[in-house]
Amino acid sequence: MSERKVLTKYYPPDFDPSKLTRTRRPRGSTPPGPKVQTVRLMAPFSMKCTSCGEYIYKGRKFNARKETTDERYYSISIFRFYIRCTRCSGEITFKTDPRNMDYECERGARRNFEVWRQGAGDGKETDEERLDRLEREEHEEEEKSAMEELEAKVVDAKQEMAIADALDEIRTRNARNERKGGKEVGDV
Q1: Residue 98 exposed, middle or buried by CB count within 10 Å (0-12, 13-18, 19+)
Q2: Strands 109-111 and 47-49
Q3: CA proximity to 76, closest of 97, 93, 94
Q4: pLDDT band at 187, cuts 50/70/90?
């Protein structure tokens, strides 16, 4: 039996490291050829195959080819995944969409309707729309802070009224005790 985690490796007596051929390339350069890996992934969204109509649900596991594209969003690499339909073996392609923190279906399938994505549109807003939205949010925040101030004033006023009522009650009790002849409450 051999050990699984060994510290030293076996080298045969006739081993000559100079006979090993090694290709040298400059530091930092990528290896030649396409940047493709085989990965195991789960379908990131529910989709319908365009060739056979098979529904592929979110979370279904596939062996996929992962390709690094030359596209970038800021400094984030965009990856393209190739999977096969489970019924007709048609190729389905989708890629990452870092701008919207999602995936974009490219070819071979159509993304199923999702209610939560309906209002989002395409996720691209113009500068004018962004300014309008920010002004609206700022105005709502100012109104909210004004309402909070008003509520705090109301709470303070109620507290002052309660203190004034308690003080009046103490004064009337003291005046009543003085009229009775200055008798102490505890005297018998």
Answers
A1: middle
A2: antiparallel
A3: 97
A4: low
| Residues shown for the chain | 188
Q: Which residue pairs from 55-58 have beta carbons closer than 8 angstroms and sit at least 24 positions apart in sequence?
A: 55/112, 56/85, 56/86, 56/92, 56/109
Name the DSSP class of 128: H
The confidence band for 183, taking pLDDT boundaries of 50, 70 and 90, is: low
d(CA 122, CA 79): 20
First and final CA of the chain: distance in angstroms?
101
Contacts of 99-105 with C-beta under 8 Å, sequence gap 24+, read 99/73, 99/123, 102/44, 102/45, 103/44, 103/45, 105/45, 105/47
For residues 35 and 68, what is the distance between their CA atoms, to the nearest angstrom?
6
